[in-house]
Amino acid sequence: MADLTGTIGIVIADDHEMVRRGLVALFEGISRTKVVGLAADGLEAIALCRKHRPGLLTLDVAMPYANGAEVFAECRRWSPATRIAVFTGYTSVGMLADWVSAGVDGLFLKTCGETELRAGLEVILSGRKYISTDIVKRLEGAPSPPQLTLREREVLMLIAAGLTTIQIGDKLTISHKTVEKHRASLFEKLDATSMAALVTAAFRAGLLDHLGEA
Q1: Could you list the residue range(s) of the whole structural domain that residue 164 is in?
Q2: What is the pTM of this model?
Q3: What is the distance between the alpha carbons of residues 22 and 18, in angstroms, rounded to a whole number?
Q4: What is the DSSP code (8-state) at residue 2?
Q5: Taking residues 114-128, what's their average pLDDT?
Q6: SS3 content of the chain, % helix, strand, coil (to 5)
Q7: CATH number, position 156
Q8: Helix pair angle (150-160, 93-102), 10° resolution
């Protein structure tokens, strides 16, 4: 949201300092914007969103302490008017589709060029949504994977990593019954009857492609 002077506050969340610096420099060239906070991890990002209620949060998907999905949920909770632009190095069609379905205001690959990035951010700041052209092409050219919620995807990734229901609940700070509910939904959506079949089906659907990416 804009302050009384019409300036839009920006919070930048990314665990790479060079990325944060690059985005700061980019926003310096966009009128009526002011970077009000820099976060190097997910917990900092949540705290800054609660403190500043920024007009825009640029959010890295993979950060320490709290991942992009957790930050997204908390920011929507504490500052629903904040527009959120997600940046990711993951190219899994399933993950990209899930972010679009979650209702993000912007979605960019980290390989996005500066010209398109700036233009896209200006579109988002104007109140519209923007999905980068590379992501649009990937989504248009791929078969539709099962649609998972961001929380279901988190549970799926932890299942694939070998964590138990109790460990998943503790890691995500949710009840074990909630984990079981998400797991049952995953079994239904992926038509699986065992943990091994679930992980295999997830890989075949491209839902875990990012586990092999840098």
Answers
A1: 150-212
A2: 0.71
A3: 6
A4: B
A5: 95
A6: 50, 15, 35
A7: 1.10.10.10
A8: 150
Are 81 and 51 within one domain?
A: yes
- How does the average pLDDT of the chain come out, rounded? 89
Helix spans in 57-132 (H): 68-78, 93-102, 114-125
Tell how far CA 38 is from the center of its chain: 17
CA separation for the pair 60, 1 (Å, rounded) = 20
Token couple for 117: 């990035």
> Averaged over 152-166, what is the pLDDT?
90
CA distances from 168 to 61, 188, 204 (A): 19, 19, 23
> How many degrees, rounded to 5, is the angle at CA 45 between CA 40 and CA 51?
130
At residue 25, does pLDDT exceed 60?
yes
As a three-state string, the secondary structure of 149-206 is: CHHHHHHHHHHHCCCCHHHHHHHHCCCHHHHHHHHHHHHHHCCCCCHHHHHHHHHHCC
Residues 207 and 118 in one domain: no
Tokens 């002011």, residue? Answer: 34
Instruction: Tell me how long the chain is.
Output: 214
**How many domains does the chain fold into?**
2
178-199 pLDDT, tens digit per residue, is 999 999 999 999 888 888 888 8
Distances (CA, A) of 38 to 24, 65, 119, 124: 9, 15, 22, 19
Say if 107 falls within a structural domain: yes
